[in-house]
Structures are given as C-alpha cells and as structure tokens.
Design a protein that fits this description.
single chain; alpha/beta; seven-stranded mixed β-sheet; six-stranded mixed barrel; 23 helices; 19% strand; globular; binds iron/sulfur cluster; formate dehydrogenase (NAD+) activity; 4Fe-4S; 4 iron, 4 sulfur cluster binding; NADH dehydrogenase activity; EC 1.2.1.2
C-alpha cells in the first residue's frame, strides 16, 4: 500500500534488455519493494530478478569512498577480501583520488596517448556511455573504447549494419502479436529475457507456429511446434539447408526480393549446394524436418526471427546472423506487421550504449570514425578545433591482448568486469595485473577492481537520473529512488570531473545537458526530447513530436544504397577447436534465471543468492551415469586454457557430449575455460564452443 512507503519512483529494471518499467517503493532511505508498472515492454510484468534483485544496492560491500592502492599492498590478483579492503587499499578524498587519476592519465598521454584505453558499460545510462566515449576520443584523440557488446551481439550488429544498414532490431518483440510464425534460435528467453518469453508463450498458446532452434533443449521447446536441437556450431549448415528448400521449391517472395534487395542471384546460386540431405549429417537435423520448417516459415503471412548469443558468440557469428537476415529477406519478412529481425539484447542498456558510440569503430548512431565529415561534425559540436584518429580503435579483447603485451599501459574501466567476463580469464587477469594504471569506477569491489590502482565509488541504476534504451529501441527515463551511499557519485558526474581535470572543455552541470548534446549528433533521437521522456517511453525513430515511435522499420526501404537490403552468402566454417581424445566434449556458457552476468549484483541479492547459491554446471544424466557421477557431486572441467572444479547437475536438455556452465561464479569461473578465438567481422569470442574434458573428482 502506498501509505506504507515514504516515496515511489518510476525507473527501469537494471538487468536485461527487455527494459521492464518498475515502481520503486522507498521507506527510511531504502528500496523495500519493486513493482512492475505499465511500460510498453512489460505491461506490469516482472521476472524474479526484477522483483527481488534490488537489495544489492544496500549491500554492506558497496563502495562508499574513493580508494587508492596502498604502496605496501600485496601483488595484484584476486586476493582482496571485499569485507576488508584495507590490506590492499586506503581510503582517500575525492580530491586526492581524482587528482592522482588525472595526473597519471596525463602523464601516460604525454608519453603515448594510445597507451590508454577505456571500457565503458552497458549498465550505465545513455548519457554516461556518450560521455565515456567522448572522454577517450576527445581526451586521447583515438578510438580505443569499447564495452561488453563486443562479448554479446557485436557479430549480429556487424551483419545487420552490413545487410540492412542499421544495427538495431527491425521490429519490437511485442510485434509477435501480429505474427503467424516465429523462430527463436540460440536463445533461452525463459531464463534470459523472461518477460519477453511470456509474450512468446502467449503467441504459441494462441496457435502461432513457434520454431525453436538450439543445441540445448531450452525451456521454450515446451511451447514449440518444431524443436530443432542442432549440433553446436552448425547454425550455418542448418539455416542454409532451410533456405535451400525455399529456393528449390520456389517459396521465396519474388516481388519483395525484386523491389527491396540486392545480390539475390548470387545468394540463390550459393544455396543450391546446401541440400537438406548434404547438411543433415553436419547439423544433426533430419531432412524432412528441415523441409517442414522451411515451408512453415516461407508460407506464413508474417514471421519474426529472434536470436540470442547462441547465434552471435561463435567465430562464425556474423555468418550466422547473415543467414537469419537472408531468411527474413527472401520471405519478405521485414518491414510489415508481425515480421522482422530481432536480436534479443542482453544488458539493460547495451542497445543504448552502442547507439551512444561506445564502440571503437563507430561514433554515436553508428557513424563511422573513418569519415572526415562525420568527425568534423562531432568536433564542431564538441567545440574542439583538433581532430581525433580516423582509424578504428581496439576492441575489448584486442585491448586486453595489448595490455598483456605491455602496449596498453593505462585503463579507465567503468562498470565492466573483464576479469570475469573475458574469454581465457587467466590471460585477461594477467593483462590487468600488467597495467601501470587502472582506474575502476564501480559500485562493488568487482574481480576487476581487485587489480585497480584507483577505485571511484559510483551509483547503481536506482540511484541515477538519465535515459536507457532497451532491445525494442524504446528510450525510457530512469530516476533516482535513493541517494548513492556514502560519498559515491553518479557515473556521469565522475566522468565529467575527470574530463575537466585532464583538460577537456566540459561544463555540464546536469545530465539533461548531455542528452541535449547527444541530440545534436544523433538523428535517431529526432523528436525525442527530455521533456517528452518525463512522461513517455518513445521508440526510435519517432517521426514527429507526438509520435510514440515506430515499432516496425524499413517498410519503405533500407538505409542503404537505393534503399535496398543485401544478401550476403555464408559458408560452413567449423568451430575453432574440434573435440579430440584429450578434450572429447563441448562446453558452452551462459546465464541462469537468478544470476546476472558476472554475479556482482545478483549474488549480493538475498533472495536470488538463496535460490542459486552455488557454482554449478549441467550435463546429460546419461553421460553422468556413464562417468559414475551422481548429480550434486564435484567434477573437474579442463580445456586448453585452464581448469575449474564445480558441482554438476543432471539436465536432459543438454546433449550427451555437452556441458553447460553459467559464468556468474568467481569460485568456478567459466571463462577460465573459454576460447578467445574471435569472429573476424564482429570480433566476438567463441564463448559457445570449447573442447573440454570432464573428470570425476
Ligand atoms: Fe528485469 Fe529483464 Fe526480468 Fe524485465 S525480464 S524484470 S528487464 S530482468
């Protein structure tokens, strides 16, 4: 009851890209209860994370004062007790910490500006992401700035920009109400986008044809008309076989292809070799099912394709997305109600942070850093008569490699946790330990902050003012329900002060000024104003000042030459490492319903941690029986990168030669095991396929 609380504040859930709107009920300076309210993406619904995952903001581990590494601290490593930081760090005033950070950054810049790099955050607001990329570009004159999109949907974005001219979804997930058929591939929305999954389930219950494709027998299979549990890494062979059927049986939409696409003849010829019979032994799906799925999708009036990181996190992730784009284009399923392409975005603001330019090859709105006139536009808005580099910057994994090699010497890391999230984590941790200067801005002493020289205490989303953009391209306001603890500050304010201290001409006093500056450089924000966002959620593009925004785009052409989308043929490429005698099984990583990414927030949430307190992996019960392992026992998992000991669960949904490992647990960190090999286009690592050995211990 509202009379039980001192205040109620509307904001947005801080976890996944669905972007559920919430009301935060505050009593005695603490958030006590979170309720789902009527946002366009959630219509009052919340999942367990949104409902119960809020008390981390009041956890005693919150950073409340700036910290500086002690001169007599032990060697850098994962060895700081979060309950007693004094062995490694001493408390400092903001003045001392900022002065030290700025002095050291300026010294590195003097020596070699390219020795500094930045990791921003998809957990921060659009304004904070924009300021962070500007800090590196204006402050150091290069583009070595990236964030976790590199580990998430970078390959999807690369394929979308290449072939439809824009990296965002072409239709909101709510458009499924107008679809006859939907494909969900490489995604487990029941655990990872649970509120979106409720719309998908309703669609299936209403009689919509649901086709689920995944190497794991994910939960959506219970609602599916077709479940294709294909071989890990065999996406291209399966999708090309489906498209081969559409070509051979002439089920494609000639009119649409003729009017809105290019390179069709090459795609058609390329697909002829991928017959269902030839591809079945590779992808593990019977030719008859491939034919049935092709006919169902091609003959529907409107079809949507959703995909997740099972598609993107491969060395052929861009090819996987190219196939999905081709499938939608050849069946005319872009730009009309109930149809489209929708990579389900992971972090709550990974769409917004990418849009805001937190990417080494793109400025805000995916404008190329290599284009002189675009850089000139930004320099003009930034009132700066100097230029910055026209070369693409380094990506997340490239920055880590360069830190390991000693070429990157200083990093500013805002709300990212590469010590847990990067592939081959031992290598990433050695790289972080090798830095001369690491400034970490975060709310907890994350595993990454263990390696920091200077730690700046920042704010959780429920303590912030600004905007975020969800997987649907919907821009929403977040508002502070409570003040940050102790001396912690909002991230944008910290970046502004650090910017001023390294000599930037910044005079922002309110976050709305940052938003208004973004509008000068980002056409996607046309007609979206700070004032409108006070009361509205607006989907970009918004065509006029009262337009709530376009749920579907590209009905009248694509933002490419002549308005045409492109077919890019994809060939079958094997995973980077094949199972062999020494490493005979396949490891894949991901999330669980209760835990978010590297666990720093959800493992400090009472309810979520109580439900899932222990590091675990999952294997097929038949495999466990053959190994003589009981569910609940410990196993040792070993790959070419390293080894972890972890409790194993039985799960029939996992194929007999696979292991599924969540990456939230530092005590058995999945990324110690993962393969850092990357996709050549999106530069995304192959998290979804590592050859692995499992031993009973
Ligand atoms: Fe939060 Fe995503 Fe759950 Fe919605 S579905 S409550 S945004 S975690």
């Amino acid at each position: 009851d509202s009379k039980d609380y001192d205040s109620e504040t509307e904001s947005v859930c801080p976890f996944c890209g669905v972007g559920c709107k919430v009301s935060l009920k505050v009593k005695d300076g603490k958030v006590k209860y979170v309720e789902g309210i009527n946002g366009p993406a959630n219509e009052g619904r919340l999942c367990v994370k949104g409902r119960f995952g809020f008390d981390y903001i009041h956890h005693p581990h919150r950073l409340t004062k700036p910290l500086i590494r002690r001169e007599d601290a032990p060697a850098k490593g994962l060895n700081v007790d979060p309950g007693d930081l004094s062995t490694h760090f001493r408390e400092a005033s903001w003045e001392e910490a900022m002065d030290l950070a700025a002095t050291k950054l300026k010294a590195l810049r003097e020596e070699d500006p390219r020795s500094v790099a930045g990791f921003g955050s998809a957990k921060c607001t659009n304004e904070e992401a924009y300021l962070f990329q500007k800090f590196i570009r204006q402050g150091f004159r290069h583009n070595n700035v990236d964030h976790c999109t590199r580990l998430c949907h970078a390959s999807s974005v690369a394929a979308l920009i290449e072939n439809v001219g824009s990296g965002a979804v072409t239709a909101t997930f709510n458009e499924i109400v107008n679809a006859d058929v939907a494909i969900i591939i490489g995604s487990n929305p029941i655990e990872n986008h649970p509120v979106a999954a409720t719309y998908f389930k309703q669609f299936a219950k209403r009689g919509g044809k649901l086709i689920v494709m995944d190497p794991r027998g994910v939960g959506m299979r219970k609602f599916a008309d077709e479940m294709l549990q294909f071989r890990p890494g065999a996406d291209v062979s399966m999708l090309n076989a489906i498209m081969n059927v559409i070509v051979e049986e002439e089920l494609y939409d000639s009119q649409y292809i003729h009017r809105w696409t290019e390179n069709w003849e090459a795609e058609k010829e390329h697909l002829r070799q991928f017959t269902p019979e030839a591809m079945a032994p590779i992808c593990g799906i019977e030719p008859e099912q491939l034919r049935r799925v092709a006919r169902t999708f091609a003959n529907a009036k409107a079809g949507l394709i959703f995909w997740g990181m099972g598609v993107s996190q491969h060395i052929h992730g861009t090819d996987n997305s190219r196939c999905l784009i081709s499938l939608a284009l050849m069946t005319g399923n872009v730009g009309k109600p109930g149809a489209g392409l929708h990579p389900l975005r992971g972090q709550n603001n990974v769409q917004g942070a990418s849009d805001a330019g937190l990417i080494p090859m793109f400025l805000p709105d995916y404008q190329s850093v290599m284009d002189d006139s675009i850089r000139a536009k930004f320099n003009s808005v930034w009132e700066d008569d100097r230029d910055f580099s026209n070369e693409k910057g380094l990506t997340v994994t490239e920055i880590i490699d360069q830190a390991y090699a000693g070429n990157i010497k200083g990093m500013y890391i805002q709300g990212e946790n590469p010590a847990m999230s990067d592939p081959d984590a031992d290598h990433a941790r050695a790289a972080l330990a090798n830095l001369d200067l690491m400034i970490v801005q975060d709310i907890f002493l994350t595993e990454t902050a263990n390696y920091a020289d200077i730690i700046l205490p920042a704010s959780a989303l429920y303590e912030k003012n600004g905007t975020v953009s969800n997987t649907n391209r919907q821009v929403q306001r977040v508002r502070p329900a409570v003040a940050p603890p102790g001396e912690a500050r909002e991230d944008w304010a910290i970046t502004v002060e650090l910017g001023q201290r390294i000599g930037l001409n910044w005079d922002y006093t309110d976050v709305s000024q940052v938003f208004n500056e973004m509008k000068q450089t980002m056409a996607s924000l046309d007609n979206i104003t700070w004032e409108r966002l006070e009361t509205e959620t607006i989907t970009y593009p918004s065509l006029h000042e009262t337009d709530p925004g376009q749920a579907i785009v590209f009905g009248d052409g694509f933002p490419r030459a002549e308005g045409r989308a492109k077919f890019t043929p994809a060939s079958v490429i094997p995973p980077d490492e094949a199972p062999d005698e020494e490493y005979p099984m396949i490891a894949t990583t991901g999330r669980q319903l209760e835990h978010w990414h590297t666990g720093s927030m959800t493992r400090r949430s009472l309810v979520l941690d109580a439900v899932e307190p222990e590091a675990n992996c999952s294997m097929n019960p038949r495999t466990l029986k053959l190994m003589g392992v009981e569910p609940g026992e410990m196993v040792r998992l070993t790959t070419r990168r390293g080894s972890i000991d972890i409790m194993v669960r039985a799960d029939r949904a996992i194929a007999e030669d696979m292991v599924f490992i969540p990456f939230a647990y530092v005590e058995a960190a999945a990324n110690i095991l993962t393969n850092p090999a990357i996709d050549p286009y999106g530069k995304i690592p192959e998290f979804k396929f590592s050859a692995i050995r499992v031993e009973k211990i």
